[in-house]
Amino acid sequence: MSITYKDADGIQGMRTAGRLAAEVLDFLTPHIKPGITTRQIDELAAECMKKQGSTSATLGYQPPGYPPYPASLCTSVNNVVCHGIPNDKPLKKGDIVNVDVTVIKDGWYGDTSRMFMVGEASIAAKRLIHLTYEAMWHGIVQVKPGARLGDIGWAIQQFAERNGFSVVREFCGHGVGRNFHEEPQVLHYGKPGTLEELKPGMTFTIEPMINAGRKEVKELGNDGWTIVTKDHSLSAQWEHTVLVTESGWEVLTLSAGSPPPPAFVNG
Fold first, then answer.
1. pLDDT tens across 14-30, in order?
2. Interior/surface letters 152-176, b for 16+ CB within 10 angstroms, e for the rest
């Protein structure tokens, strides 16, 4: 599958889908507190999507070799790196959770995720969440025509490792548009000046998974989806869908409740 370049209509479709995905996270934010289960979060998201007139891209999603995904979003708690399946275990004070939402609207996919602290989290957890957010943005600001995908991965890896964290290698960002996963793959590590050249009209996710401990991960149990850190350390992830513009980048998954970019982005 080759890279697709979005025209003006496609970009508008992607903006709409991206904003709606972010608005699902806005809607969920006040509900994420001690005592709620991730299954209840999933049910709230499904209701929100129904009101929007969007549909979940994850519900029933079945790439080759995987069982059908059973929920409308992913909820990855504490040492879960990604693809955590919502369940009936209540979240407790001090947990951290990534909520990953992808909606489809008029055939276009909007993909974004945020980290949430359940009640008051530890200093170490707060630091991981904060610096993972900054790592994502260090990748985003590399985006412009003529840059390379390796520039994004290098910026994220350098920042994460400089702060004592590790970058998960097995999962990466991806092109997104009329399909959930398109070319190119967007690695969150690498060498500057390498891999695909960025061109206007490309849309892809930047979604680093950063571990407090070692980078190694493993599949948990037998559900076919849940990925955890091998050393049981905490893991965090943030995700935006980004457009390569004529002069730089545009984040397509912003909404009224999106956390503001770090100070260095507009500095």
1. 999 999 999 999 999 99
2. bbbbbbebbeeeebbbbeebbbbbb
